[in-house]
Amino acid sequence: MSNVGRFEFILLLIVLIVGLELVARKLRLPPAAALVLGGIAIALMPGVPVIGIDPDLVLIVFLPPLLLAGAYFSVWHAFRKHLLGILQLAVGGVAFTTLAVAAATRWLIPSMPWAACAALGAIVAPPDAVAAKAVLKHVPLPERMTTLLEGESLLDDAASLVIYRFATLAVLTGSFRPVHAMVTFFFLALGGLVLGGVLAWVWIRLLTRVRDRILSITMTLLLPWVAYIGGEQVGVSGVITTVVAGLVLGWRQHDVFSADERLRWAAVWEVLVFVLESLVFVLIGISLHAIVLRHMGTAWVAQDVVLPVAGIVTVVLVSRFVWMLLTEGGRVAFLPRGRRPGWRGFSSFVAIMGWCGMRGVVSLAIVLALPPEMPNRDIMQIATFVVILVTVLVQGTTIGWVIRMTGGEPAHPRGQRHHLSVSQARALIARSQEHAMRQLAYAPDGQIVHSRLLEQYAYRAELAERFSHEQQALQGRKDAHYKALLATIDAGRAELLRLHRSGEIHDAVLHQLEHELDLQQMTAEGGLI
User: Fold this and answer.
1) Domain locations in the chain?
2) Cβ proximity of 281 and 32 under 8 Å
3) Which residues form a coiled coil (predicted)?
4) What is the CB-side half-sphere exposure of residue 372 using CA atoms within 13 A?
5) Sign of CA dihedral 395, 400, 404, 409
6) Residue 117, Cβ neighbours under 10 Å: how many?
7) Label partner for 499 (CA 20 to 30 A): which of 243, 321, 359, 380?
8) Half-sphere exposure of residue 275, counting CA atoms within 13 Å on the CB side?
C-alpha cells in the first residue's frame, strides 16, 4: 500500500471510530468496549489491507501524549495523600502480576524463554487510565478508591515499560544481571524525575512569556514528545520524564494559561487524545488480522493458542485480587483497632479494586512495538488483545453491578477530611468578588460609579443598550465597567486557588468553578475589544 493509500485508510478508520463512539453512547457501553469490538469486526472484514506498523513509531507517536494527558489531569492533593498506596499498586502490583504471568506463561509454553515471558507479563500488567476513567465516570466510588485507581494507572505505565525494556533487552542479547537492572532502574527513574521537573520549569517560563494563544497551545502540544524523546536521548526514563512534566504543568496550569488559552487548549487536547486512543484499539485488530493471515486461518489458533491465552487471562485476573488482598490486609493490620474497617468494608474494597483492572491503550501500544525478533511474538499479541477484550468487556460492563452488590464504602470515612461542595465553594468565591466590587464601585470622592454592576445582569443589559446609541460618550464607562468586572474575576480566581491549594476543595470542584470563571473572563475581555 502506498503512503497515500495508508493515509486514506487511516482517515476511513477515524470515520469508523466516530460511528463506533455513537453506537457506544446509544447502547450505553464503555467506549473502549465498542472500539475493541469494532477492531475485531474491521479485522475480519474481507479486503482489509495489511498495514506494516513500525514498532518504534507506535511508541513515540501514541505513548507521550497519552501519558502527559493522564498526568496533567491528575488529582494532585489526593495523589500526594495516597502516594504510598498508589506506589504499592503501580510498582508492587505490576511486579507481582509480571512475575505471576511470566511463571504461568513459562509453564503453559515451555519453549518460550523466561525473558520473553517476563516481557509479556510487563505488557499485560498495568491497568489503563483511559479505560478506568471511561468506566468510573458513570459509577460513584469513594475518593480513596478513585485516587488509587487513577494514580495507579498513571505510574504503572512507567514501571511496566521499564520492566519490558529490560526483559526485551535480555531476549535480544541473551544476558540479564538482576543487580545491574535494579541499579539502572533507580537511576532511570531518578533521572526522569529530575529531567521532567526541569523541562516543566523551562516550559512554564516560556509559556508565561508567550502571550499568543496559538503559539502557547502549539508549545504545550509539543511538550510530551520533547519530554519523552529528550529523556530517551539523555539516557533516562522517557516515560517518567513525561509523567513528571505533565504533573508539574497540570499543577501550574492555573497560573500559566489565560482563560482563553486554557479553554481552547483543553478542547484541542481532548480531540487529539480521543483520536490517538481510538486508533490504537483499531490498529491492534488489524494486527490480529495480519497474524491470522500469516498462519493461514484459525487452525494454529485453535491448536496452540487457546489454552495458553486462557491461562494467561486467568492469571492476570486472579493475581490482581491476590495482590489487593495482601496489600490491603497488611494496611488494615497496622491500623489502630478503632479505625479498622469491618469485614464488609474490607471485602468490598478488595472486590471493587480487584475488579477495576481494565487494560487498554498502553498495553496495546507496547505490544504493537514488540521487535520482530521476539520469540512467540504472535502469541504475545493475541494474549494481550484477549486480556484487554476480557477486562474491558467483562469487567468494564459489570463494575457498576459489583459496586452495588458489595455496597462500596461510606462516602466520607472516619479521619478523611471533608471537602467543600460546589455550592459552598461558589458562595465563598461570590463573597470575595462582592468584597472586591464594593471597593471598586465608588470613586475617590465617594460617588458610586458601578451601582448596576453590583446588581449584575440588569445593569449590564442597560449599559449595552445605551452603548449601542451613545458609543463615543459611553466608551470610558464601558471600559471601566469591564475592567472592574475583570478585577472581581481575578479576586474570585485567587480565592478559588487558595481553597484548592489549602486542600479545602477537590480538583473536580476546582475545574468546574474555574471553567465558569474562564467563561466570565472571556466575555469581559471581549467587551474591552
Assistant:
1) 3-406, 422-528
2) yes
3) none
4) 3
5) positive
6) 27
7) 243
8) 13
Bridge partners (DSSP) listed for residue 442: 448
Contact 301, 382 (CB under 8 A): yes
Strand partners, 526: none
Which overall architecture, per CATH, does domain 3-406 show?
Up-down Bundle (1.20)
Distance CA 136, CA 5 (A): 38
Amino acid of residue 382? I
Q: What is the mean pLDDT of each run of 10 residues along the chain (529 residues)?
A: 76 86 78 72 69 67 81 70 81 90 92 89 81 59 75 76 81 70 77 91 88 84 92 86 87 77 81 82 67 62 79 93 89 78 81 83 77 84 85 78 68 52 60 69 75 55 56 69 85 88 83 84 73
Q: What angle do CA 101, 354, 388 make, to 5 degrees?
A: 55
Q: Please state, in angstroms and rounded to a whole number, the distance separating the CA atoms of residues 440 and 423.
A: 25
How far does CA 6 lie from the centroid of its chain? 29
> pLDDT tens digit string along 110-128?
888 888 899 999 999 988 7
- Helix H or strand E segment including 101: helix 94-108
Mean pLDDT of all residues belonging to the chain: 78
Decide: 261 and 255 in contact? Cβ < 8 Å: no
Alpha-carbon distance 93 to 99, whole Å?
A: 10
- Please classify residue 239 by burial: count the beta carbons closer than 10 Å to its beta carbon, then call 0-12 exposed, 13-18 middle and 19+ buried: buried
CA dist 98 and 116 (Å) reads 11
Q: Residue 448 pairs with which residues in a beta bridge?
A: 442
Q: What is the pLDDT of residues 267-312, one digit of tens each?
A: 888 888 888 877 877 776 666 666 666 665 556 666 677 888 999 9
| CA separation for the pair 382, 377 (Å, rounded) | 9
Cα gap 126→160, rounded to integer Å: 6
Helix (H, G, I), strand (E, B) or coil at 442: strand
Q: Are 331 and 85 in contact (CB under 8 A)?
A: yes
User: How far is the C-alpha of 194 from the C-alpha of 245, rounded, in Å?
Assistant: 10
Q: Count the neighbouring beta carbons within 10 Å of the beta carbon of residue 339.
A: 10
As given in the structure block, the three cell numbers for residue 288 are 490480529
Residue 307 bridge partners (DSSP): none
